[in-house]
C-alpha cells in the first residue's frame, strides 16, 4: 500500500522560504516519479514540479522555475520541495503525488497516489 505524508507547510512573508517534505512508503522506487501539485481556493489543482526517483531528472512549472527546487533523499525515502522567493500567489494547499510511468507528467489525473496536502500561506 502506498502512503504519502506531506509536512513543512506554514505561514511565511513574501520573499521568504519554506521546505516541504513528502515521506513515501512504497514497495519499489525504481519506476517512481514524484510530483508536487498545488490548489488554491476556487482554482484547479496545478502542477508545480516532478522528479524521477531513479534518474533524478526534473520538470517545473514556468511559474516556479528558478524559485523552487525538487529533490529526493533515497535513504530517507523522502522528496522535498524547496521554495524560495515566495510570492502571495504561491498560497495554496500543496500535495505530493506518485506515478509509476517514468514520465515527468504534469496532469493531476495521471498520478495514482496522493498525500493529504499541506497548507502554504504567503503574506504580502
Describe this structure in words.
By secondary structure, this protein is mainly beta. It has no helices and eleven strands. It has strands at 3-7, 10-13, 18-25, 33-39, 46-52, 58-60, 68-73, 78-83, 92-99, 113-114, 118-123. Strands 2, 4, 5, 6, 9, 10 and 11 form a seven-stranded mixed sheet that branches. A hairpin with a 4-residue loop joins β7 (68-73) and β8 (78-83).
Short note summarizing the structure:
This protein is mainly beta.
Portion in helices:
under 10%
Radius of gyration: 13 Å
Estimated share of beta-strand residues: over 45%
- Which structural class matches the secondary elements? mainly beta
The number of helical runs is: 0
**Uncertain spans:** none
Note the main sheet: 7 strands, mixed
Number of strands: 11
Q: Which key features would you list for this structure?
A:
single chain; 124 residues; mainly beta; seven-stranded mixed β-sheet; four-stranded antiparallel β-sheet
Give the secondary structure arrangement, pairings included.
Elements (H helix, E strand, L loop, with lengths): L2 E5 L2 E4 L4 E8 L7 E7 L6 E7 L5 E3 L7 E6 L4 E6 L8 E8 L13 E2 L3 E6 L1
Parallel strand pairs: 2-11
Antiparallel strand pairs: 1-3, 3-8, 4-5, 4-9, 5-6, 7-8, 9-10, 9-11
Amino acid at each position: 500500500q502506498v502512503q504519502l505524508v506531506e509536512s513543512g507547510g506554514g505561514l511565511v512573508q513574501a520573499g521568504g522560504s519554506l521546505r516541504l517534505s513528502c515521506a513515501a512508503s512504497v514497495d519499489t522506487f525504481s519506476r517512481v516519479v514524484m510530483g508536487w501539485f498545488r490548489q488554491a481556493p476556487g482554482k484547479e489543482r496545478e502542477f508545480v514540479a516532478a522528479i524521477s526517483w531513479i534518474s533524478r531528472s526534473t520538470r517545473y512549472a514556468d511559474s516556479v522555475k528558478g524559485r523552487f527546487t525538487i529533490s529526493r533523499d533515497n535513504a530517507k525515502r523522502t522528496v522535498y520541495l524547496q521554495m524560495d522567493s515566495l510570492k502571495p500567489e504561491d498560497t495554496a494547499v500543496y500535495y505530493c503525488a506518485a506515478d509509476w510511468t517514468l514520465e515527468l507528467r504534469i496532469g493531476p489525473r495521471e498520478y495514482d497516489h496522493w498525500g493529504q496536502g499541506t497548507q502554504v500561506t504567503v503574506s504580502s
